[in-house]
């Protein structure tokens, strides 16, 4: 038996992988315009090798699996997730694509809950798909480790809100006492500059969703819906648990296709944001940055308060966080304190929150030292 191949794919293998992805995700009429942008962008960001879709020929599931025989399970899982991502951006999703996704996954020996979700979408059973998301082993998990990381016991579900917990609210308030440049102070400024309410108070986001706000500051992403896609792509790829892909599937279903009407306890559907110019490059780069971090990182289960007093640059260095690619920046990827990294609504919320608290309103200002 040939040895397992652990080296990064070369240009020839990347072209082969593209054959599988296109064959699994394309409808009878071929790839959609968004797929034609997204698939090459993902391969270029993740492998460094360009893909010319005009040179990609169809391949069957068994033949593709035979070509993947030397690749291990983790590699094959990531290939199936690439197929899924390329398919999940399409609405309506053809039933034939749902069938082929299952064929390719079975041939590769991969199980992924999101294949069932894709098949539900293809069948038009969006309510059943939403239920599948809520039952997902990763998104639906609520155990003592997660509760310890969230510093609250008042949850009845993973995405439940905690609006009356003075101890939790006090923990968040203490972030303001940290020096500028620390991760925790950055998160405190991030909240105040947008008028966000911290967990433990009325009107706050669910504590589990608040976990991802630390990632905005750590990885340097603003808070537009396009930025949210980048953040969840980064988180999903930084985690070696393949179930974390459901995070990216969720935000694509919210902010591109609208298959999900709501998610993560706060987000509501708002379609078409992956079609924004440059978003294919930004998504691919966020996945690349997540993949290149050292180790596996479940940012939703991380006790961020244990890192709050550390300089954000130190935390970035410890996980091996690489800078954004120039192409992603040119495409509009903005940090929390850069132009394009905050919405007018959030600025208005910040002003309203200052007035309600009886404090002076300090306008948001770009801060290159933190981005």
Helix and strand arrangement:
Layout: H1 11-25, H2 33-47, H3 61-67, H4 73-88, H5 95-108, H6 113-123, H7 126-135, H8 144-150, H9 166-173, H10 183-192, H11 207-219, H12 225-238, H13 245-255, E1 262-263, E2 267-268, H14 279-291, H15 312-319, H16 326-330, H17 344-356
Helix pairs in contact: 1-2, 1-4, 1-5, 2-14, 3-5, 4-5, 4-13, 5-6, 6-7, 10-11, 11-12, 12-13, 12-14
Structural features, described:
The chain has 371 residues and is mainly alpha-helical. It has 2 domains: 11-124; 144-356, no CATH class. The protein has helices spanning 11-25, 33-47, 61-67, 73-88, 95-108, 113-123, 126-135, 144-150, 166-173, 183-192, 207-219, 225-238, 245-255, 279-291, 312-319, 326-330, 344-356, and strands spanning 262-263, 267-268. A two-stranded antiparallel sheet has the order 1-2. Helix 11 crosses helix 12 (225-238) and helix 12 (225-238) runs parallel beside helix 14. The radius of gyration is 21 Å and the shape is globular. 45% of the residues are buried. The mean pLDDT is 94.
Write a concise synopsis of the structure shown.
The protein has helices spanning 11-25, 33-47, 61-67, 73-88, 95-108, 113-123, 126-135, 144-150, 166-173, 183-192, 207-219, 225-238, 245-255, 279-291, 312-319, 326-330, 344-356, and strands at 262-263, 267-268.
User: What is the overall shape?
Assistant: globular
Total number of domains: 2
Q: Write down the secondary-structure element order.
A: HHHHHHHHHHHHHEEHHHH
Low-confidence stretches: none
Whole-number mean pLDDT: 94
Q: Which class do the helix and strand fractions yield?
A: mainly alpha
Strand content: under 5%
Q: Reading side by side through the largest sheet, how are the strands ordered?
A: 1-2
Tell me about the largest β-sheet. 2 strands, antiparallel
Radius of gyration: 21 Å
Termini separation: 49 Å
Number of helices: 17
**Fraction of residues in H or I helices:** 40-55%
| Count of extended strands | 2
